[in-house]
Design brief:
two-stranded parallel ribbon, alpha/beta, elongated, about 170 residues, 7 strands, five-stranded mixed beta sheet, about 25% strand
Length: about 170
């Protein structure tokens, strides 16, 4: 698997636009608002016991971390529509897997950026990243393929790909 495949984040245009809007707000008006809060709190006096100042500084730290996260994601984003035809698992596909080959124990999800959740209202299913243990195990596989992957708890999990189709928004 190429480095591009493992580090690219697949997003719909709608999700990309929402993330870009959030980044623009946080790095512009959002920064100004937090700076004003810090300045107002500084005017209150002793900073060692100033709860408002410490809360504003904490807010600033969280906001700056989110700005860095968004900038990185948008830099690595691959924006596009789901593939028109899907015969193998890839970003933008909706996949149904059966655990341990038991077709009564299935899960359906979209392979793409977890940022799709909550950003694109058309996504009503779980989203797994191609970089996740499950995502990387099934990437490039086809319907009927059986694969094993190691879960974060160290347990080996066997799945069979039951269905692969383009994600329908």
């Amino acid at each position: 698997m190429s480095e591009t495949t493992t580090h690219t984040i697949w997003l719909t245009q709608e999700a990309f636009d929402k993330l870009q809007g959030e980044l623009d707000h946080l790095s512009g008006p959002g920064r100004a608002e937090v700076s004003q809060k810090i300045a107002r709190a500084r005017e209150e006096g002793d900073l060692r016991e100033n709860g408002g100042y410490h809360a504003a500084r904490e807010e600033q730290g969280v906001q700056e971390a989110r700005i860095r996260q968004l900038a990185d994601m948008l830099r690595r984003a691959e924006v596009g529509e789901p593939p028109a035809h899907a015969d193998e698992v890839g970003p933008g596909t909706q996949v149904t897997i059966a655990f341990d080959g038991d077709e009564s124990d299935t899960e359906t999800f979209v392979l793409g950026s977890r940022e799709l959740l909550g950003l694109d209202e058309s996504v009503g299913t779980n989203v797994y990243s191609p970089q996740s243990p499950l995502g990387s195990a099934i990437l490039g596989r086809k319907k009927g393929d059986a694969v094993s992957y190691t879960a974060p708890n160290g347990r080996s999990i066997d799945v069979t790909i039951v269905k692969v189709e383009p994600f329908q928004s």
